[in-house]
Amino acid sequence: MASPWTFTLLCGLLATTLIQATLSPTAVLILGPKVIKEKLTQELKAHNATSILQQLPLLSTIREQPAGGIPVLGSVVNTVLKYVIWLKVTTASILQLQVKPSANDKELLVKIPLDMVAGFNTPLVKTIVEFHMETEAQAIVRMDTSASGPTRLVLSDCATSDESLRVQLLHKFSFLVNALAKEVMNLLVPALPNLVKNQLCPVIEASFNGMYADLLQLVKVPISLSTDRLEFDLLSPAIKGDTILLYLGAKLLDSQGKVTKWFNNSAASLAVPSLDNTPFSFIVSQDVVKAAVAAMLPPEEFIVLLDSVLPEIARRLKSSIGLINGKAADTLGSTQIVKILTQDTPEFFTDQGHARVAQLIVLEVFASSEALRPLFTLGIEASSEAQFYTKGDELILNLNNI
């Protein structure tokens, strides 16, 4: 039982908790708000969300819907816009996302703060008139059970919060220019929420779908266990507080891809701990871990020619046997062999946060390479402390103090 034994677990994510003895034979991946925020932020960048903000059609929108749709003010609006040559967002950024429980405990509230600087050009002044715009897109993450397929997580009800909308002039100019800027900002206040809803919300929904698809792909990555592999499949998602739970079923496959063991897919009896300060947690049942350890430590047989490989051991062995039975010691020739066999699969035990692996090892001593029967046989239970730790994208099982 050499150490360390290594197998790849899950990419990128990740700190793993020790297996608890009370778990049913399945697994659950718990994603805290930190992981959700980071993954969704990455997807928003991949979908060029800030570029979408910079391309918001501010001027055409307020021209098409002047003065919030009140016709009587149309001429006034047209007079104002006559002095605006162009109007656009010059810089945009998405600030730190927030993920919180919603009023419904089975839903998540996602807040996406938007920070923009817009400007317009006017013949009344040579420089660009700039103003600062702040708003916040909000959306709900919930479980969708309406589709004919399996339950999945979706992001919906995307809109902006009226309380979060702020538009203010960055620099003061002449009385006339300031008055024009104020009228432009008054026109933008009702237009900006609709622009965000129509232009950015579809990007936010697509980003969440991309994040969810990546997570599902991630949990399906096969875990190599020597010649075998362990695979997980999503049974159902869930939301609890500010976390996403992915209940998983597991199966063990041999080198030919044939399933050799299915594990109980019942997720209802899982004892799911709170995350505390950890970004995520991966809880695995003892049955799955035992099968994984057994696959990494299959029954093996080693043959050692003592006189050639370990001459000092051979000498001491012959001397010790001679004290018990001189005739038996005399039968030990220069080709004496020790055969080491690991029998059965190793046992995996947990007790109050500690893990241990035990396996029966059999030593057979043959007087020579020609001997058909061993001179004597010795059975040893080898017990080791099992330690799990992460290294990069790998979960490592280290066996100490064999």
From TrEMBL:
Gene Ontology molecular-function annotations: lipid binding
Gene Ontology biological process terms in this record: innate immune response in mucosa; negative regulation of toll-like receptor 4 signaling pathway
Organism, scientific name: Mandrillus leucophaeus
Name of the protein in its database record: BPI fold containing family B member 1
Matches recorded under PANTHER family: BPI FOLD-CONTAINING FAMILY B MEMBER 1
Highest taxon in the source lineage: Eukaryota
Keyword tags: Signal
Keyword Signal assigned: yes
Any Pfam family: LBP_BPI_CETP
Signal peptide limits: 1-21
A cellular component term, taken from the record's GO annotations: extracellular exosome
Lineage, highest ranks first: Eukaryota, Metazoa, Chordata, Craniata, Vertebrata
Keyword Signal included in the entry's annotation: yes
Domain Lipid-binding serum glycoprotein N-terminal: 36-257
